[in-house]
Amino acid sequence: MKGSPVDKGMGKSAREKAPDKRQDRARENALRAVGGLAQRLASGLAQRRGKSGVSIGRLRAEWSAIAGPDLARISRPEALLAARGRTGKALRLRVPGAVALEVQHRSAQLVERVNAYFGHRTIDDIRLVQGTVAAPVASPAPPAPDAETVRHMSARASTVEDPDLRAALARLGASIASRRKALVGLLGLPLVGPLMARPLRAQDLPREKLLDVLPTDHVLGKADAPNVLIDYASFTCPHCATFFVAVFPVLRQQWIDTGKLRFVLRHFPSDQIATRASQLAECAGSEKFFERATLLFHKQVEWLTGDDPMQELVKVLASDGVSAEQAEACLAADQHLDKVIADVQSGQTLGVHYTPTLFINDEFYGNPPGGFDAIAAILRQVGR
Fold it and tell me: Is residue 33 part of a domain?
């Protein structure tokens, strides 16, 4: 796995300090898509996406969030091109002639905004072409959440440390809650209870408790297995997908199914799409959670790099027997969002700053390089 290595020769005290030494890493949990979203798990993906790792369709779909509403109204992404005299990419923007000079002056800012949004160097340059920019077709506005709902959701997310993630979770929760009554009435689903019925106190648990299996955890392995591996992952993280495609099957065969290891998967979403994917995985229930999670990771390139990742995600779940209506109902269920937020809180308490992050038998190992062999070597060294 390619990630943030932890030297095999580190002592325990050095490993425990490792998360603090990585504070300067790009925070993958701050509403930025993880670098390399179009990971090279699919050989034909580079040709389909211009070898950029980010589709022009996704740039168009998320342009308002990337550029800001003012610039988004006067510009439209057209293509990703090879930058002149460089190895990087240039984004071609269509702009009206009257504002071309203004946008040109702000091109450096746009480059930085694009790269910051995706969490890696996506483009190096902006090229402008003059032309009419059609106003985007306005979709029906969702019902605005009332003040009480906003207050409740802000309170529920208040203990999440990262300010960007906290604000996003509060907005997402308020948006979901505003549609919840109508949706559950339409589908005949029971209400789960008041918004504040399940206070989230994961951050109050002592470190040693968080490093053990929690009652709310999704666990694979025998209850008496002596070793515990906790994996904090995001469904939009390419390294997490690599882990589930290339490492997890062997780990399961040789360590989990043989009764030597309990495997715990906790959510640490890096953006709103990852948060919703986590909710949809939760909706599978404890019996089928790992089956659903494995499906989402194996199909990550397929659904994440489409023009509308949420629509593509629902299509992937259709193969698992989940209808669009069921998916919407799942996103409206409070308890699934509660579980995601609780996992984020536990990860922040443990010093998680990127995904995947592994803890093996109470010790931090980050994302050790070397795939299964490296993890097996660690287990043999610190195994019980």
Answer: no
Q: Is 310 exposed, middle or buried (0-12, 13-18, 19+ CB in 10 A)?
A: middle
Report if residue 166 sits inside a domain. no
Per the document, the length of the chain is: 384
Q: How many domains does the chain have?
A: 2
Task: Give the amino acid at 57.
Answer: G
**Is 65 part of a structural domain of the chain?**
yes
pLDDT at 72: 85
Indicate the pTM of the whole model. 0.55
Beta bridge partners of 80: 91
In 3D space, the residue among 342, 380, 383, 344 whose CA is nearest the CA of residue 362 turns out to be 383
Closest by CA position to 227, among listed 360, 114, 328: 360
**Whether residue 110 is found in the same domain as residue 250:** no
Q: Which of 113, 130, 147 is the last residue of a domain?
A: 130
Shared domain check, 209 and 87: no
pLDDT tens per residue, range 206-260? 788 899 999 999 999 999 999 999 999 999 998 999 999 999 999 999 999 999 9
Domain range holding 112?
A: 47-130
Same domain (yes/no): 232, 376: yes
Cα 153 to chain centroid, rounded: 20
The reported pLDDT for the residue numbered 114 is 85
